[in-house]
Structure formats: structure tokens, C-alpha cells
Design a protein that fits this description.
This protein has nine helices and 14 strands. It is an alpha/beta fold. The protein binds D-[(amino)carbonyl]phenylalanine. The site of D-[(amino)carbonyl]phenylalanine has 9 residues, from loops.
Amino acid sequence: TRFLTVGAAQMGPIQRSHTRRDVVERLIAHLREARRMGCDLVVFPELTLTTFFPRWWMKDQAEIDSFFEQEMPSNETAALFNEAKRLDMGFCLGYAELANEDGRIRRFNTSILVERDGRIVAKYRKVHLPGHAGHEPERPFQHLEKRYFEVGNLGFPVVKAFGANMGMCICNDRRWPETYRVMGLQNVEMVLLGYNTPLHNAPSPDHDEHSWFHNQLSMQAGAYQNGTWVVGVAKGGTEEGVPSLADSMIVAPSGKVVARAGGDGDELVVHRCDLDAGKSYKTTTFNFAVHRQPDQYRMIVER
Ligand code: ING
């Protein structure tokens, strides 16, 4: 049996005044705790290096770009890569990516998977960008991912790493069944994801009380229906005045929550994951080759 000991490295608030150096110190503290706990892999949240800046309407491109990474690793993040390698630890990191591609500047909400030897072995760019693109000052805080990021253009890759078929997604992606199914069709065994989830969603305040339920439901469904582990890691607590969901968790292919954060600050949630736990689902109930009827599902893609 293959085991992978995973650390969900929940982060408390990152305020605008926190520098990347401040944040990297906290990330390195997680790596060291993870080493003590016998982890092979540490998963950090979405946009982990800065405060969740899409909550603000900004017009000055230089100010906006101050929240992006123009290279990875960069000067500030090199320390994280070096420490992880020294500790023989892999990690998954979410950050705002500014890339020069096809002769133009492109900006994505990105996540990378780094193996224990320090190599970036996978990159994912967020596909489901929630919120709005235009200025909506009447909101208590805004959600401008559609303004600051392009829709991801790398699909939902599944790569062989850490002895498993590993996939990634980011935040709002976890609420969409298609996210998990595209990876399920690539035989994913573990999905790594981070999130910044305000506890208030202006367009639907009646959903606020269900934030914890919807978070857990989304990841449990994705895990069970595709026979995969799901590791969900929050940036939680009150960040720049916005109360955000914590509740980081590790979900088994059965759909059971096997480990969960107790608080809303920096907290490492660890579980020794049996990578073969999904097999009994993939070979019976969710044996896609035997049971799925793609010809009947065309509307999902064609609409
Ligand atoms: N955040 C939120 C999320 O999907 C949201 C947006 C909040 C959607 C509340 C629905 C309800 O968890 C990000 N960054 O996607």
C-alpha cells in the first residue's frame, strides 16, 4: 500500500501590511512543523503570498501588479523552496502569476506543485473566477477576480508525483463538479486546493449561514464521486476587515472528512493518506468505463 502523509497548512489572515518576507516566515514555520509530523507534502492556500487583494477596486496597474509574482521562485520565495528541499518536503503553493506569454502580459490565479527535490512538477491556473469584473462600491467588500485574472488556460492537469496521480484546483473551482470529473477522467488520486472564502456573499446573504456546509459538501461530493482524496486549505480569519471561512479539511475517497482544522489561524492539519483508498470506488460504483454514458451528457459541454 502507498501512503502519503499530507499537511494542510491553513493560514490565518494576511493583512495588506504583511510583507512577502513575513508570509514566507510563516510558511517555513509550517514546513518545519510538517517535518516534525512526518509529512511528505504541505498544501498552502490560494493566493498565499499576499492579502486577498481582489476585495478592492484598484485602477493603478503598478499597484495591482504589486500583488503578483513575476517569477517563481522569486527572491522572497527562494527561501521557501530552499527550506522545503532541505527538509525533503514537497509543497503546493497558490499565488498571483504575472506571465509574459505569446508576447503579452497575462495574469492568472495560479497554483504550483513542487516535488521534494525542488522541481515545479505541475502548474494550474484557476478556471472558475467568481464575483464580478466591474466596480461595485455598494458592496461591503468586492470580489474582482474577473477584473484581475484571466480564465486559466492549462485545463485541469493530473501529474504523477509523490507516487500518486496528483491534481490541483483553486477555491471556487471546488464548487463545480466538472472540476473533479475532468481530473477523475485522468484517474486523479488526490486533489489539492486552497481557498479564500468570505463568510458573506453580497449577492446571496441567505447563503452565508451555510458557508461551512457548502464548503464541506462541495469537497465531499468531489471526493466520493471521483474516488479521490481532496485536501482543502483555507486562508481564514478576519483579513482586512473581512471574516473568512477557515475549516480546512482532508477528505477521503469515501467522502468522509478524516482531518479538520480546529481554529481559524495558522494551523497544520495532518493525515496519513492511503493512496489506494480510491481504488474500490474507481473499480466499482464509479467505474467510468463500465457505467458512464458520455453520449447522454453532451449538453454539459455544448451549452
Ligand atoms: N472565493 C469564494 C469561493 O468560491 C464565493 C467565492 C464565496 C463563492 C461565497 C460563493 C460563496 O469560495 C473564491 N476566491 O473563489
